[in-house]
Design brief:
By secondary structure, the protein is α/β, with parallel strands linked by helices. The protein has helices at about 25-30, 95-100, 120-125, 145-155, 170-190, and strands at about 10-15, 35-40, 60-75, 80-85, 105-110, 130-135, 160-165.
Length: about 190
């Protein structure tokens, strides 16, 4: 699928979160083009830095080492979203900073089985002044908590959108992206007033 021929606006969003939270899956579900993945097989060399004994990571065999990239043209062909999935490990921080350049916002994926791992990513995003939304990705064995309890545990500002989603489901993932887009637009409006 080619870019629209008429004049259009390109918008860059990050899809961020810790290792194994579903970033690659979400970008893949939302993209209208074949996605670019930089997944590599996890080796013994990473064993000292990636704790695969954590819940949700025991069967993980690959990891993103640079980016995932997908593209989504919104109805009307006037806005094209570029979705950049970021690596989830600290050792890729120099790449993350380059990927974040020019982004208008970030969708942070979180896992209720490992909420504490989301703080580092949210800190990185806040340090860059990017608006963000948090989407709690639902896994089959994830505990189900009320959104207000999750908001409190994640220490989110009242204006930060918090939703649940299933990264494997396009409609659910799209709803999370809509929350981010709406928040980014309202944040930009607040900055200009």
């Amino acid at each position: 699928m080619y870019l629209p021929e008429k004049e259009h606006q390109r918008v860059k969003f990050l899809v961020a979160g810790p290792l194994g939270v579903g970033k690659t899956t979400l970008v893949e579900r939302l993209s209208q083009i074949p996605t670019l993945h930089t997944d590599e097989v996890m080796t013994d060399a990473a064993a000292s830095t990636d704790d695969l004994s954590l819940v949700g990571l025991r069967n993980k065999t690959k990891t993103t080492v640079a980016i995932d990239f997908g593209r989504l043209t919104l109805p009307g062909d006037r806005i094209v979203l570029y979705l950049y999935g970021t690596p989830g490990q600290r050792r890729f921080l120099p790449l993350w900073e380059g990927i974040a350049f020019g982004a208008l916002g970030a969708l942070v994926l979180a896992d209720t089985r490992r909420l504490d791992e989301s703080f580092e990513v949210m800190d990185l995003i806040e340090e860059r002044g990017l608006p963000y939304a948090v989407a709690v990705n639902i896994f089959p064995d994830s505990p189900n908590y009320p959104l207000e309890l999750l908001r409190s545990k994640l220490d989110l500002a009242p204006e930060t959108p918090l939703v649940t989603c299933d990264a494997r489901d396009k409609r659910s993932s799209l709803e999370a992206l809509i929350q981010l887009t709406t928040h980014s637009i309202s944040s930009a409006g607040a900055e200009t007033s």
